[in-house]
Design goal:
Radius of gyration: 16 Å
Largest sheet: 8 strands, antiparallel
Number of domains: 1
Distance between the termini: 12 Å
Structural class: alpha+beta
Shape: globular
Strand content: 25-35%
Order of helices and strands: EHEEHEHEHEEHE
Length: 164
């Protein structure tokens, strides 16, 4: 787990709320504090959908950020910035598989409970914290360290400047 402070908050927020940079990620939850605090639970409410509609969803556990992003943008837009914001992203299984393959790791995707990016914004400062959760306990930190390196690489690839 690493905590990266974003150097250019405006550029980062553009990637988060306007561009498609984070669209493939799943939303676990979001808290946005403006004039009121809004909590969004990203868990898919399966009772809302027909079985046919559920089959069309890319993930039946969590909503895609791409689907929830317009709501969050609507809550944030205006003359004032939020007093705080927290967004927790989970990597979908396809991205976990790609991560393992790209990094040359031999673990299977089912060994990983979750790869996460936790975004916090408060007092004008945005931070991104990486997180890993494995299905079984291990003292081996290879996946965690590799995901930290991957996180740094992806932010640089997106053109998002940060410091540790």
């Amino acid at each position: 787990m690493i905590s990266l402070t974003i150097k250019d908050t405006k550029t980062f927020m553009s990637h988060l709320l306007v561009k498609d940079t984070f669209n493939p990620l799943l939303l676990s939850e979001a808290d946005i504090a403006t004039g009121i605090t809004t909590h969004i639970n990203g868990t898919v409410n399966k009772e809302f959908y027909t079985s046919e509609e559920l089959e069309q969803l890319p993930n039946t556990s969590y909503a895609l950020w791409e689907a929830i992003k317009p709501t969050c943008f609507f809550l944030i837009k205006g003359n004032k910035v939020p007093t705080s914001m927290k967004i927790i992203f989970i990597f979908p299984e396809s991205m976990v598989t790609t991560f393992l393959a790209d990094c040359g790791l031999e673990e299977t995707p089912d060994a990983i409970q979750a790869l996460c990016w936790n975004i916090h914004y408060t007092n004008g400062v945005a931070t991104l914290i990486s997180g890993t959760s494995l299905r079984t306990f291990t003292l081996d930190k290879t996946i965690e360290h590799t995901f930290d390196t991957y996180t740094r690489h992806k932010l640089a690839e997106f053109g998002i400047d940060f410091e540790e």
